[in-house]
Design goal:
This protein is mostly helical. About 65% of the residues lie in helices and about 0% in strands. The chain is built from 9 helices and no strands. Helix 3 packs parallel to helix 5, helix 7 packs antiparallel against helix 8 and helix 8 packs across helix 9. The radius of gyration is 23 Å and the shape is elongated. The protein starts with a helix and ends in a 14-residue tail after the last helix.
């Protein structure tokens, strides 16, 4: 097919008369899309923190995201990570971390990944101990044991990075 035939075929299949109409209809469609409020608020907060360096604005958006998220573990986990990067929001991040883990207590990859956002704080240690007690051959358990070992924390019955 020639280029002109391709374009004509596309317009025919999409049932529009020309590309100006296609463009106008597409923009109207996109403007009508609704972004999930919780995830949209989180995205806005992350943007304000990363691109605009506006910690206060980011924290406000993140609080609105938490209010809209309900029990959505995925959105709440993203908010935990973003809160942990804002000075003065560490306590909120830690409390939200506890809430997320209470909502999905057996999700070891989530527990391990989220607690790694608090490496300068002993708040991660209880979670690492739980992960370390996880399946000894699972990567999450191995990572948790290695991290505890790195921090100089050895517990009874915990293998050190799978080395015994």
């Amino acid at each position: 097919m020639k280029y002109e035939e391709d374009r004509a075929l596309l317009l025919r299949l999409l049932k529009v008369k020309d590309f100006a109409t296609l463009d106008r209809d597409f923009l109207a469609y996109v403007k009508g899309l609704k972004c999930g409020e919780a995830s949209g608020r989180w995205s806005r907060g992350r943007y304000l923190l990363g691109k605009k360096k506006d910690e206060e604005g980011a924290a406000k958006e993140l609080r609105l995201a938490v209010a809209a998220a309900g029990d959505d573990v995925d959105v709440l986990a993203k908010v935990v990570k973003t809160f942990s990067r804002i000075d003065g929001c560490e306590k909120e991040a830690s409390e939200l971390l506890d809430r997320v883990l209470a909502l999905d207590p057996l999700n070891m990859p989530l527990r391990y990944e989220l607690t790694s956002w608090f490496p300068d704080d002993d708040a991660e240690i209880p979670h690492l101990r739980i992960c370390a007690g996880f399946d000894p051959l699972d990567m999450v358990g191995l990572n948790a044991r290695a991290w505890l070992s790195f921090r100089g924390i050895h517990g009874e019955g915990i293998l050190t990075a799978g080395l015994g």
